[in-house]
Amino acid sequence: MTKWRKLLVWIAIILTVAKVWLPDSMIAPLEKWVHKADSIVRSVQDIFNGRPAGTGNRGKKWAVASKGHYSGSIDSVHDGDTVHVRDKDGHMHKVRLANIDAPEIKQAYGVASRDALKARIEGKPVDVNVVAIDQYQREVGQIMLNNVDINLWMVQQGHAWHYNSIAKKQQDRLGFSRYQDAQLKARQNRLGLWHNARAIAPWQFRQQQKNR
User: Fold this and answer.
1) What is the DSSP string of 66-134?
2) Is 139 a catalytic residue?
């Protein structure tokens, strides 16, 4: 996407120089096309960066994803494991909740999972501990609300799976064990998604979608 932006910038420069020799009747349509193309590229970039399409230049400042701690408030909830956090400086962060995997929105219990997380934390002050940056340039972090581990809470309530394959690389033994125990209890009590004995893990669901 960056290559496209660079190409559009060069075209704009060429058009600026060309104005010296070419009439406005020829330049105007080309400038309109460049402006429209740039708008499309920006919208696509917004989507890939987890922003609502076209919001890149509407006053929202997006932070560069990085590891570390910060405080802020939950601006919005995208799904059961992805949220937007506005930090105390007014910058927005797209955060993927670490060590869990919630059902996809199009998957069974996906909307319910999102709504449960939304009801629990949207608009509330939180602390975020970013442990990694994923391939989509999202912050992967643990969200704390009044000293409650929201990631763990989602598993405890049966709103998400413990993401074993990823968690093994990120959690210490104690943390991994706590999440495993929480999932086992939620499953035994048939909480949330576990009400369906044949519930499909989101990573399996995504693979099924790719194979179609």
Assistant:
1) -SEEEEEEEEEEEETTEEEEEETTSEEEEEEETTEEPPPTTSTTHHHHHHHHHHHHTT-EEEEEEEEE-
2) no
